[in-house]
Each structure stands twice: as C-alpha cells, then as structure tokens.
Amino acid sequence: MPQLVHSETIDGVATVRLDRPPFNAFDTELRVELGDVVRSLADNATVRAVVLTGGPKAFAAGADLKQLAAMDYEQISVWNHALQRVFNDVAALPVPVIAAVNGVALGGGMELALAADFRVLAEDASLALPEVQLGIVPGAGGMQRLRRLVGIGKAKDILMSGRRLEAEEAHAIGLAGHVVPASAVLTHAQRLAAEYAAGPRFALQAIKEAVELGADSPLASGLAMDKNMLAGLFATRDRRVGIESFFAQGLGKARFGLAAE
Fold first, then answer.
1. Is-catalytic flag, 261?
2. Residues 6 or more apart in contact with residue 124 via CB below 8 angstroms
3. Pick the catalytic residue: 111, 168, 244, 261?
C-alpha cells in the first residue's frame, strides 16, 4: 500500500502532506494514516508548530463517496465518529496548526482546514461544505467550528446553500488569515509556523486552550482559567527567558528556542 500521509519535521515545524491523488478524498486508509501521524506529533516534544497541506489541485475533497454510499446507518455512524475523532485530535494538538490550502477544500477537507488554528489560502482556492446538496450534513465538526469562526447567520448561509467560498470571501469573513499566490501557499504557511515554533511553547499552548475552552464557558470560569494559566506559566523556563530578556534588551527580543522546559 502506498503511503498516503507524509510528515517531515525541520527546526520544530512539522509539515504534514496528504497524498491520495487526485483529490485527497478521505477513505478509511487515509483517515487511519492521518490519525496515526497526528497522534505521533502530539507526543513529540520537538514539534513546535504544524502545517497541514495537500496537493496543488486539492487540499482535500471530502469523504470518498464511493465508500460511504455502500454503508448503512451503523456503519456510517462508526466511520464518521472515527473521522471526527481524528479532526478533534488535530484541533487538540498543543501547538499552533496552520492549514495551507491550494485548490479545493470540500466537505471533510474543509472540516480538516477548520480544525486548524489558522488558514493560508491560495488566491484561486475555494472551500465548501456541500453536504446539503446530497441531502446530508457535515458530520466531522464543520458545522460547529464554522459557526464559532464566522457567526451563526453566515454559517447557516454557507451550510444551507452548500455554496463555494472563494478565497477573497473566506478572508473577508475571517475564515482565512492570509491569501497568497498559489505558488507561495506552503512556504508562507511554513514561515508563519517557524515564527510560532520560535515562541514560548507553553504560553502558546495556554492561549490555544484558553481561547477554545473559554468560548463555551461562562465569563467567570474563563477568567479563573486565565488566572490559573498565568500562575502556572511562572514555573516555566520560557517565563524566565522572556522576562530576563525584557530587562536586558527590551520587549520582543527573547529567544525561547527548543530547549526543554
């Protein structure tokens, strides 16, 4: 069997590439391989940021409908639960995750991109959750993550129409942070990832957890979480490096590096 997911880590940045031509549609094998890679990254202390990418024509084009069409209720429930778990694992990675999107990101492909912290799109990229046109709905996190990113009204519009979002609109509604020429998508995403990889690992992890968990928490609970995270970070090497650097050189000059905390 050919390898469907490739992962390479350089200077703390892991680049994960889907490789199931022509459009990286998710079948069981691709889902299993991606899950294995993501779990290995979560356990790797040298990984400080992750870039997800696909091919020049497609980031990922959703589920393999030929495989899904033959499933009954119980089978699709098990299959979808497994896919959702993989995307949840992507979202739960304790480091910044950037989706570098060339071509199309459809259905499950867009859901994977939504599980990332940030999205870099090619100028000619397009995204869609077209499941409604098949009489179904996104089941791997797309509805919930889209609503949290763009708001209820816009999410309903995108989901109920199943229409495609071009890169310019995705940027305008806050779904994409960067739109760049197609030839520069991966390198741009890797450059952003390198900036995060050079930052304070545990502070970045705390920010990611606080923002995600706080979105569904009462304000009082979120404030308590912020307070506890700040106190906990005072036990880290990065806190010492950051404050000592501030007094010695001023703000923004700290070199946190890859040293163990």
1. no
2. 103, 167, 182
3. 111
